[in-house]
Amino acid sequence: MSFPDLEAHVRGTSRYIDDMPDPAGLLHAAAVTSPVPHAKIVSVNTAPALEVPGVVAAFTAAEIPGANQIGGIIQDEELFATSTVHFIGQPVAMVVAETAHQARAGARSCILELEELPAIFDAREAAAAGELITASRTLDSGNVDDAWADCDVIVEGTAETAGQEHLYLETQAALAIPEEGGRIKLWSSTQAPTAVQRIAARVLGLPMNLVEVEVTRLGGAFGGKEDQATPWAVMAALAAQKTRHPVRFTLSRHEDMCFTGKRHPYSSDFKLGLKKDGTILAYEVHLWQNAGAAADLSPAILERSLFHATGSYFVPNARIHAASCRTNLIPFTAFRGFGAPQAMFVMEAAIHRAAEVMGIPPSTIQARNLMSEGDAFPYGMCVERSQARRSFDEATQRFNLTNLKTEIAEHNAASPLSKRGVAVMPVCFGISFTNAMLNQAGALIHVYTDGSVSVSTGAIEMGQGVNAKMLAVASATLGVPQDRIRIESTTTRTVANTSPTAASSGADMNGRATELACRAIANRLLAVAAELLDTAPDRIAFDNGVATADGKPTKLEWNELVWTAYTKRVNLSAHAHYATPGLWYDKEIEQGEPFAYHVFGAAILEVTVDCLRGIYTVDRVRMVHDGGRSLNEEVDRGQLEGGLVQGLGWMTTEELVFHEGRNVSDTLSTYKIPDLPSTPILEGLFLEDAENPKAVMHSKAIGEPPFMYGIGVYFALLDALRAFRPDREGVYDAPLTPEKALLFLHGDR
Ligand code: LUZ
Ligand code: MOS
User: Fold this and answer.
1) What is the pLDDT of residues 411-425, one digit of tens each?
2) Whole-angstrom Cα distance, residue 58 to residue 106?
């Protein structure tokens, strides 16, 4: 089986937290949340909840035994607001009851006395008011001020991107079980079990060794469970500690859409300078990140925006300003791409504007400025193996961009009300957590006496297929068939101090740890085999469960060897830790080597716009992707296609709208994600001979990079729209919904 969960998923028997059988005495939790974006709390009255049938208890900050603090990077977020509420949906208290329905009724009955305060929702306004989450940062390379004088063309403009709802299939969920000695066992739908463990321990006033967090799998996450799973898990744990009952906390879809953080909206100003031939000389950009009301992961996301501001291009003189702005919206959080897509959109907008002014296709400017081997990013790191040009050239040649453009021009000339458009989108994405500390992982392997193997790592399976990849690594390293290996659930008790499964690096790092631990056991077993076969260990290998000597099969089988090793008292277990080598970054000088390597690729996107109605279709997207040597090609193809489609949604129909701080796109009827009918014809090619010595078995991380191919659809749409309205300049305000397309076609603003 190429994907361990496949059969259970198809049969519907895979267990998620909400599917786990109810433990005896189970209670359900619901949150009491702020109905206004900013207010002073005068009083919180939970007494009415206790009158609601089935309600067992209600808790506010006053009942917290430890610290009322769930902030990760910056400790600026209370579990329950005490003096002030800062956004609509902010938890103030919780109610536990015998059923979820009763808990919600209890929560609704609580009375909050609030004095409303003025609120800010716009990032630029927040910055102007000095409302910053952290000090703003500037990455400055070359000499931008002098470079403008050498430019033949200089363009300026603004670009905006809206937020994005994760819409994982499984909503936020947790189940807390009180055990003996005050211990708490937590099941959480989290990407970050250690973070949940640490913060639950902090809030409950327990040492971390009295809190275990276990995760079997998530029904999707996309970054939405890197930090945002924590409050619900911690509330469940608190209620379990207080009531000594198991407590389940599962958000409804509507609650999840209202109460949890999303992708950050960004506002930006850009200025791009080029030579007549399209060579980029200078780029200056201001990025205003709308962080929402608390830091969450915003500073880290801002840092990734800084690093990806110049996209796939070499820019000799660049100045990138980035500010994380505090507003009275929900704290925005990690989402596939982690600030890179927002910054890369601005660069593409600047190139589009320059192309417009110069009267040349954007792809001419793109092609002229791709990173080459040895070029440095503004943060100082050189690309060692750039596949930027290779994938761009392969995409434009294999998919014959020149012919395609001719075809489109002919169609457009012949069709007054139907216009086609095309764009190329190159992607370059740095792999590693930008915070070097987080680039570590662990694995714990047991070989049992019957030869079956148990693999535990810090990686969380969230549908991205990391378990399939761990299986591939363990099987190849031990030389035993995949069906003898089980990938265990992820728990803080087997592998401790884990980083979130995030930054596309879960398979890279946990795969390396798995490889190291398997190798340690294999080496011990080979020593035993050498004795049995009367030869040297380095002449023996294991292949599909059979020992080979000098490459030829022997009679010695894995099971027999394992048993013999056991009788000889050989250790059949190993733990290994992996820390990505060579990473450093100095924020003082804004220079360093924050990434192990980069992933490259290019996509060609085609659209057709109905110029009477403004509706459009994305017809076809073809990608050439730098995937290294895949650990599992089906899994990688799934990430390539899924990432792209999620990016298309962000750029087209997923319109996250806040009115006076209230999310008014909080249902599936007002928030439209791509569906099968809107999914284009997809073709994905993986670059051949793409080695990668920087990751396990020459593989490459794939989770996030393909998302950014989706950015190209915005520019393909602009291409089609401007075929109808050549008199209009491009606007850069994503998503480009059909309504906005209609206004472009028939309006004048
Ligand atoms: N999470 C994080 C991430 O904490 N740091 C990162 O650099 C990152 N990058 C991508 C996605 N999640
Ligand atoms: Mo992430 S955006 O949790 O890799």
Assistant:
1) 999 999 999 999 999
2) 9
